[in-house]
Design a protein that fits this description.
The complex is a heterodimer of chains A (480) and B (104).
Chain A lengths: L6 H6 L8 H14 L1 H20 L8 H17 L1 H10 L8 H22 L10 E8 L3 H14 L8 E3 L2 E7 L3 H4 L2 H20 L1 E2 L3 E4 L3 E3 L7 E11 L6 E11 L2 E8 L4 E3 L2 E17 L20 E5 L5 E7 L4 E11 L9 E11 L5 E7 L3 E5 L8 E17 L3 H20 L4 E9 L2 E9 L6 H9 L6 E2 L1
Antiparallel strand pairs in A: 1-20, 1-21, 2-3, 3-19, 4-18, 5-18, 6-7, 7-8, 8-9, 10-11, 11-12, 11-18, 13-14, 14-15, 15-16, 17-18, 19-20
Helix pairs in contact in A: 3-6, 4-5, 6-9, 7-11, 9-10
Chain B lengths: L2 H24 L6 H35 L7 H23 L7
Helix pairs in contact in B: 1-2, 2-3
Chain lengths: 480, 104
């Protein structure tokens, strides 16, 4: 029956006819989801989303820094092209990774990973690809003996033993690498699934506080439902090595129900306390301002913009450059303007510490007369002349530091690390043990069996194919 | 961005470049040079993918330790992921090209 059959005719035996419409639909879906074209298209769409994130700053982790960066970017765009800025803002491209479209893409990627995983861990039943390297030969044996011989040859080349199925009077089988090497690349798919699961766990059971700015000595609640408060007790500037000129460590006092302890944070390491992770995500200079009358009594200071209650001491984090602040001291008939400048010493390397300078102006509130204008780079006590010398008021300016604290509950942390490890193992397996596949068809005839072995065209010269041919006593083949 | 992650990221891209240059040289004595070329290039791309993924993981671990967020869709992270995705697309595309000239 199969005597003298060409390789191309043998190739057609790999296509099993569908047994029902459902079978046909399932096969079509499987082919679609395992095809390289689908994988490429999915990677392409994801790449477009990611490139949008390169061009437009995203909300990301909703930190103050990320939001400030996004606002600054939009302001710069608005200055150049107000229309484009409005379009960008209205299109929602700045919240791309929270969009339904992106979530659907992630769901599709998860589905592809499930199918990819199943395709690698279950027995291969796929048809051979369009471009193959094939060779046909005849053996004067029964089909079962032929399969045994083919199986040994395949096994010697590192492939699975065949489990043939009958198709149109012939027996066909598909094989891939034997053992762990055959399915280890599936770990990459499993890793992506675990990473997606980690993000679900984070959104369902995770929690993150708003960014809390802590000034020396001021307690702040970490979150209403935790009952925990944090107070910045100490800031340590520790001289570093070549990489960084100094390391900033903050010592916090945590107090709450049954909790009272001190924790130390720095810029590179957070700490865990009572189920919460604490991170020092930002630090910088802060201002401490006091105004004293001629008798040394502290006067109340009002911040008209912040709408806080008048206080004898004002502390403010000095963020950004050329930040201007205005304080009112009604008892001394004074307005104190403070402008913050920050620049790097020498501006030669970014590892040098930020130098902070303050321009302090004192203006008489009642008539607007400028009484004082000083540029400060260190703590100072400035004397503001009054109507008579004895009425001189003192403005006490001190440089302190602030830290921005973030508290988190992160049940997904280890899950994500596990997922990343799986992805790396899967990629490493793909690197060490590249995919190796073969398809075999055996058609019994009057004078023995006709066999055809097919391998992907790119493996035509691979050593394992030479071993396989040698074991079967064959040489040469043709590319279909 | 962590310095180690940055170095690994660039190393991954360099591996890809070296693979592209090395592939035609390595396969010049092959009986089917295009198939050999594909094998070398796909190998280089796989190595590049692994190194770039390692860079992403190192970056994620450093960001998690410092800021409590292993991934925040920052522009630097998006660049790294975009490079990985482009490399993966290239690897898939080259694998499915079918370098031998005769097609069914």
């Amino acid at each position: 029956m199969a005597d003298g059959v060409s390789s191309e005719e043998m190739h057609s035996r790999f296509s099993r006819p569908p047994i029902s419409r459902l079978d046909e639909a399932l096969r079509a879906a499987w082919r679609l989801m395992t095809s390289p074209g689908t994988l490429m298209a999915t990677l392409g769409v994801l790449l477009l989303f990611v490139l949008a994130g390169v061009l437009v700053p995203q909300e990301g982790d909703l930190s103050d820094v990320a939001l400030a960066q996004q606002v600054g970017w939009l302001a710069a765009l608005r200055a150049r092209s107000p229309t484009l800025a409005n379009v960008v803002q209205a299109s929602g491209v700045m919240h791309l990774y929270q969009s339904l479209l992106f979530r659907l893409l992630l769901a599709w990627i998860a589905a592809l990973c499930v199918v990819g995983l199943l395709a690698l861990v279950t027995r291969d039943r796929s048809s051979s690809p369009k471009q193959v390297y094939a060779w046909t030969f005849g053996l004067q044996d029964e089909a079962s003996e032929v399969w045994m011989r083919v199986g040994e040859a395949l096994s010697g080349a590192g492939l699975q033993r065949p489990e043939p199925t009958c198709v149109d009077g012939c027996q066909v089988a598909a094989m891939r690498r034997r053992g762990v090497r055959g399915w280890a690349t599936a770990l990459a798919y499993a890793g992506v699934l675990v990473l997606l699961a980690a993000s679900l766990i984070a959104s369902r059971w995770g929690w993150r506080s708003a960014d809390i700015t802590l000034l020396l000595g001021e307690p702040q609640a970490l979150a209403p439902n935790t009952g925990l408060t944090a107070r910045l007790d100490e800031i340590r500037l520790i001289p570093g090595g070549e990489k960084r000129s100094y390391q900033v460590e903050s010592v916090l006092a945590l107090t709450g129900e049954g909790v009272s302890k001190a924790v130390t944070l720095d810029q590179t390491n957070g700490t865990r306390s009572d189920g919460l992770s604490l991170y020092q995500i930002e630090e910088g200079p802060s201002l401490r301002l006091q105004v004293r009358d001629s008798r040394g009594q502290c006067l109340d200071i009002t911040d008209p913009l912040a709408q806080l209650r008048p206080a004898p001491v004002v502390r403010r984090a000095l963020r950004g450059s050329q930040q201007e602040q205005q304080y009112l001291v009604p008892a001394a008939d004074l307005v104190v303007n403070v402008v913050h400048f920050s620049r790097r010493l020498g501006a030669e390397t970014t590892t040098e510490p930020l130098k902070t300078a303050l321009q302090v102006q004192a203006v008489r509130w009642s008539d607007g007369e400028l009484l004082l204008d000083e540029l400060l780079e260190s703590d100072a006590v400035l004397s503001v002349p009054g109507p008579v010398e004895a009425d001189a008021t003192q403005v006490v300016v001190a440089f302190e530091r602030y830290v921005v604290l973030r508290a988190e509950r992160e049940p997904e942390r280890l899950v994500a690390l596990f997922g990343a490890g799986l992805v790396l193992l899967g990629l490493l397996a793909g690197l060490l043990w590249p995919e190796r596949r073969a398809w075999a068809v055996v058609c019994p005839g009057a004078s023995g069996c006709r066999c055809c072995i097919e391998v992907p065209a790119r493996d035509a010269n691979a050593p394992w194919v030479a071993r396989l041919q040698s074991a079967l006593g064959q040489r040469g083949g043709e590319t279909l | 961005m962590s310095l180690t992650a940055l170095v690994l990221g660039w190393l991954g891209l360099a591996v890809m470049l070296v693979g592209a240059v090395w592939a035609p040289l390595a396969a010049r004595h092959d009986t089917q040079p295009t198939a050999g070329w594909e094998r070398v290039l796909v190998g280089a791309l796989r190595l590049s993918l692994f190194v770039q993924a390692l860079a992403l993981v190192v970056q994620g671990i450093a960001a998690q330790r410092a800021k409590g967020s292993y991934w925040s869709w920052s522009q630097g992270e998006c660049w790294q992921l975009a490079a990985w995705l482009a490399t993966a697309m290239l690897a898939v595309w080259i694998s499915r090209l079918g370098w031998p000239v005769r097609r069914r």
